[in-house]
Structure formats: structure tokens, C-alpha cells
Specification:
about 350 residues; alpha+beta; conserved putative lor/sdh protein from methanococcus maripaludis s2 fold; Elongation Factor Tu (Ef-tu), domain 3; Helix Hairpins; 6-stranded antiparallel β-barrel; 4-stranded antiparallel beta sheet; 25 strands; about 40% strand; elongated
């Protein structure tokens, strides 16, 4: 009986020792897992200009809208869209039956007023007419002469003559149509104008663009060439429909014929006055309002520190953040970052 008791006692001691060893093993494993295994990536400090992208269309900075001074029926048009015209070329005329009659009427009224004035002046010398009669008819002659000038001026502008040499980029009417005064009939791209590209940018981007900034444009019409240019004009107000700002880019077209309406991919390179960090896109763990959150290794690379940064440009590879106001960044945590909390213990795994 004592022997059985001794065996049971021994087995109990073995079981206790075994449990102790398992407990110590669990505790040891728990201690080992108090850190998170992570990988880091280097942060690049840069001063390079980050391009701003948009879509632009070719235009001229001197497009002239040609119209008739008076309304009427278009009689003939002598130029087609796309045609090159020279200064002084006749482009279109109105039917002038009505305006010719107005000119004739004004001239006849002037002739009668001048004849009446001569008769009254002769009578005034004979003391038959008064000075008031002479002055009234003198005024009538002056008014009639002004009426002739007006009608002859309108008659002159019952036709459209090219004011500059250039290419007609739009023809907006046809013979037989009734047009109103000032309604555009042609749009002329003058030779004196420069070829430009018009592009639009958001308010965030327009604040970084300045006159003289360099630009590059790629056109499908010239797939092997990159057209360079500079910013020549900045809109001071946004388009009320789109909320974007218009930017004119003067381009160096060389010997290429740039047709108005060509569409190109625009890259503008604003001057970069502040240095900035290029934070790898894999380091971003979450966003909040205008800020993004990243983790950086601290205290001999054993502690993860949560940091909020405000980007001014996000690309497919990195987030650009101005250096001002931030601590010196050498590396950021990429792999393992989504599982971290601020001040978590970490262990950096070799890349």
C-alpha cells in the first residue's frame, strides 16, 4: 500500500514539473510576441519640382471675331473654314438694298437742306428772313450731313474684309442666312498671334503656378515629340461652371502646324522653393481630414511612433510632404505598419 502511495506521489510530482515547464514555455512565447515584426523604407529628401498635370487644347492668343456692323441677309461668302487669307481680302457681303436706300435718302435730305439754307441766306440779306431762320437751317444741314456719314459708314461695313493675314478657323454662317449686328461670321487666327495651349487647374494647383514656369505637352498628333513651353497667362478668377482656373502656355511649336483644337497632355513644373520628403506610399496607414498617418521607428528602432503629415502632392509611388514643421525623417515603417499602435514595440526585419 505504501508502495502504491509512493508511485502516485512520484507521478504527481512529474505532472507538476511538466505543467511548470509548459507554463514557462507559454510565458516565454508570450514575452517573445510582445513586439511586431516590421520592415522599413528610406525617406528621400528632395528639392525637385513636382509636375502638375492637366489636359490642354491648342489655340491662338489673337483670335479675331469677324462680323457685320449691321444686320441683314448674307448675300455671298468668299472664304471657307481652314482657308489662309491675306489682309484686305473680301470675305463676305450682305444684301445692301436696304442700306443703299438709306444712304440715298440721307444724301437727298442733305441736298434739300443745303438748297433751303442758300435760299434763306439770300432772303436774310434782303431782310426778308430772320437770323433764327438761318440758324435753324444751318443746324438741319449739319444734322443731315451726319446722317449721310452714318449711313455711308454702315454701308461700308455691310461687308467683311480681313483685318489681318491668317487662317480662318471657324465659319459660323452661310449665304442666305439672316444675321444680326455684331454676330460672328468668321473667327480668324491672326499671323501676328502666338500659338498657345489652354489648360485648367484646381485652386490647389494654381496657387503653385507662376509666370514663366516651364511646361511640357504631349500630343497624339506628334507621338514622338514633347513640345516645350512657358506659362504666359494666369486666370484671376475661376470658371463658375467648373471651379477651375484657366492657364495659357506659350509653346515652341518649331515648324509643326498646330491646328486649333489639338488636345495634349500637359505637365507644368512649378519652382520648388521648399525641400520636401518623399514618403513611400506603402507607409500610409490611414487618413484623417487633410492629414495622413505614418509610423517611424524610434529609440534605437524598438518603438513605433505615430506621426501625422499633410501632403501637398500624392503620386502612385510616394506622398510629398514639406519638411518644415516635421522632425528629421530617415525611415518609415512599411510592412507591418497597419497592425501597429502608437508606441508599440517593434523589431525591424532586414529587407
Amino acid at each position: 500500500m505504501s508502495r502504491i502511495y509512493f508511485i502516485i506521489t512520484c507521478l504527481s510530482l512529474v505532472a507538476v514539473m511538466s505543467c511548470k515547464e509548459q507554463l514557462e514555455e507559454v510565458e516565454s512565447t508570450t514575452v517573445q510576441k510582445k513586439y511586431t515584426l516590421v520592415q522599413t523604407q528610406k525617406v528621400e529628401l528632395s528639392n525637385e519640382a513636382i509636375p502638375l498635370f492637366s489636359i490642354g487644347t491648342v489655340a491662338s492668343d489673337k483670335d479675331i471675331k469677324l462680323a457685320f456692323k449691321i444686320g441683314g441677309v448674307i448675300k455671298d461668302m468668299y472664304a471657307d473654314e481652314g482657308k489662309y487669307v491675306k489682309k484686305g481680302d473680301l470675305l463676305a457681303v450682305l444684301r445692301t438694298t436696304e442700306i443703299d436706300a438709306q444712304v440715298f435718302k440721307a444724301k437727298r435730305a442733305l441736298t434739300k437742306a443745303e438748297r433751303d439754307l442758300e435760299r434763306i441766306q439770300a432772303m436774310y440779306k434782303d431782310s426778308v428772313a430772320t437770323l433764327e431762320n438761318v440758324e435753324d437751317l444751318t443746324t438741319l444741314v449739319e444734322v443731315s450731313r451726319s446722317d449721310v456719314d452714318i449711313t455711308e459708314f454702315n454701308q461700308k461695313y455691310a461687308k467683311i474684309i480681313a483685318p489681318e493675314s491668317g487662317r480662318l478657323i471657324k465659319r459660323l454662317a452661310e449665304p442666305g442666312e439672316l444675321t444680326s449686328p455684331g454676330n460672328p461670321i468668321f473667327i480668324l487666327s491672326s499671323n501676328k498671334g502666338k500659338t498657345i495651349v489652354k489648360a485648367t487647374f484646381s485652386d490647389k494647383d494654381i496657387s503653385r503656378i507662376q509666370y514663366g514656369n516651364k511646361a511640357e505637352i504631349e500630343f497624339d498628333a506628334f507621338p514622338d515629340d514633347i513640345i516645350t513651353g512657358t506659362i504666359s497667362q494666369l486666370s484671376e478668377s475661376a470658371d463658375p461652371m467648373t471651379g477651375t482656373f484657366l492657364v495659357d502656355i506659350a509653346i515652341n511649336r518649331g515648324n509643326k502646324r498646330m491646328r486649333n483644337g489639338y488636345v495634349g497632355r500637359v505637365s507644368v513644373f512649378p519652382k520648388q522653393h521648399q525641400s520636401y520628403y518623399k514618403i513611400p506610399i506603402d507607409a500610409i496607414v490611414e487618413g484623417e481630414s487633410d492629414y495622413l498617418k505614418i509610423f517611424t521607428p524610434h529609440e534605437s528602432d524598438t518603438i513605433a511612433h505615430l506621426l501625422s503629415v499633410r501632403p501637398f502632392k500624392i503620386t502612385s509611388d510616394y506622398v510629398a510632404v514639406f519638411r518644415e514643421g516635421l522632425p528629421d525623417l530617415d525611415r518609415v515603417i512599411t510592412k507591418g505598419a497597419p497592425y501597429l499602435k502608437d508606441l508599440d514595440k517593434i523589431k525591424i526585419k532586414a529587407n
